[in-house]
Amino acid sequence: MGKLRLDAIALLCPALLLSVIGASDAPRPRGVGPEFAKFYKSPDAFQCISNPSIQLSVSQINDDYCDCPDGSDEPGTSACSYISPLSPPAPSEVTAGVFNETLALPGYYCKNKGHIPSYIPFTNVNDGVCDYELCCDGSDEWSGVGGVKCEDQCAKIGKEWKKLDEQRQKSLGAANRKRKELVSAAGRLRKEVEDRIQTLGTQIQGAEMKVANLEKELADVERQERGKIIKGPGKGGKITVLASLAKERISELVYNLGKVRAERDAARERIQELEGILSTFKEEYNPNFNDEGVKRAVKAWEDYAAKDRGSDADAAHDRDLDEMLKSDAENGLVWEEFEATEESDVEVLYKFEEYLPKPLRDWVDQKLRDFRIMLIENGILADPNVDSGESKAVQDARQQLNTAKKELEDDRNELKAHQEDLEKEYGPDEVFRALKGQCIEKDSGEYTYEFCWIDKTTQKPKKGGGNTGMGNFVRVEKIIVDEELPPDGKGIGSGERYFLKYENGQHCWNGPARSTEVILACAEKDEIWKIVEQEKCVYRMELGTPAVCETAGNGKAGPARDEL
Ligand code: MAN
């Protein structure tokens, strides 16, 4: 049982055929559709439709003998069914000269009263099979070949079809409403992007001015600081440097003083011990031994012992030393105050300004600074900042500038991303914008496949293990497809369809980088219908979505393929 494309289209476009029914009420030869009735009106003669020069008698119509090269004399038999159908012959057929003519009629016309009229291929006429799918009135088997009798089933089939069609229309209506919602959501999202672009434009202008001001400010601060700060190895001005050197020196001295004092005390103890030994010696020696050496030693000891040691002075000195060895804080020395000071040496040097009235003092001070800077800039004075770190003021100014520059750069990057986004393809009415990032999944074989709108496709092994990227979204395209719809309607069917291209997925061992083509057809809800790996690592998904309903060639006449 074959299927003629035109009939299928006619089935989907009942309005087209219904409009021509009744265009001519004159009895028509068997198998002639109302739109061709005009060719069969003459009671005297018949001219082949595509070859009017060939004139036949009326009795030659439907005499089961093919007279016209276009088969138009046999609208109700299969006599001319060997002629290629209305669609153009294949190039190979033309070359072989097999079919140099095509049929003038789309097929045998079944009136299908109570249902929808349609055409059936001439090969199906009187072939002994009831082709109820296209010819529910059974009129295609009018000759009863082989005893076949096809009852008219149009009432029953038409009723079922009507019921189904109502459901289909309902589903299509729901799908179309969903699409409208998606389109308005997409419009809102676009508007948000446009608004953000506008805000960023103003923000960037402000940020540019801020950066320009801060650049100027930094240059001013740098200029001021050049004449102001004389740097040492540490941070700050001369006083600070001096303070840090003094702190270091004093701590060294205090340490060494403590050390010397301890050595002195140790030496004192040794002397006392020696003195004790010598006193005992003097007391206990025998003067009756006339030893000259001993006598001289005793005499020397007596002279030594008679000398004044000044012990009170030593005690006072020790008290002084105790004071000196106290910590800096105990001595009231707070180095931090000096270390944090950034004092201008100009101010230090020109203290005389303090005697002048303030305005004059400021003026003189400024002139002196400028003069000094001029001398530095002209190489007359050495630049005190060379080979030294930056002052806190310069660091602060630079940091502020850098922060402002970073903000400006961030704003510019965001603006660029949004501008690129507006240029990006989001399909008919930009509807895919509303779906961007949303994902759906389907199990197939050993994997679960994930599709994410305008993002990526992924293959997830059910038994665990890492996911495999099957491609990242690159563009929207259109494609002509021609596939028979499965009974549940969940298929891409025939006609022009949108498809999304996902490329540069994970590299395939011994193959290309994985890629996916996602072909879209109208359905009431988003659903992956089918996944095939067409060739190694090249995948194809068929997907139903309301997003493409009512779009050119894909929904105007087509049903929403869901719950049908
Ligand atoms: C994995 C899957 C398959 C693919 C092979 C190629 O098993 O991504 O789809 O065919 O790798 O090696």
Give structural notes.
This is Glucosidase 2 subunit beta. It comes from Lepidopterella palustris CBS 459.81. Pfam families: PRKCSH-like, PRKCSH_1. Residues 437-551 form the MRH domain. The protein is α+β, with helices and mostly antiparallel strands. It has 3 domains: 26-156, no CATH class; 167-217 and 424-564, Cation-dependent Mannose-6-phosphate Receptor, Chain A, CATH 2.70.130; 238-341. It contains 11 helices and 12 strands. The chain has helices spanning 5-12, 14-20, 91-96, 154-228, 238-284, 292-306, 311-324, 335-339, 345-349, 358-377, 392-423; strands at residues 45-47, 55-57, 108-110, 118-120, 439-444, 447-452, 456-461, 468-482, 494-503, 515-522, 527-535, 538-545. Strands 5-6-7-8-9-10-12-11 form an 8-stranded mixed sheet, with no helix packed on it. Strands 1-2 form a two-stranded antiparallel sheet. Helix 4 crosses helix 10 (358-377) and helix 4 (154-228) runs antiparallel to helix 11 (392-423). The chain starts with a helix and ends in a 19-residue tail after the last strand. Residues 1-24, 229-234 and 553-564 have low confidence and may be disordered. Residues 459, 468, 508-509, 533, 536-537 line the site of alpha-D-mannopyranose.
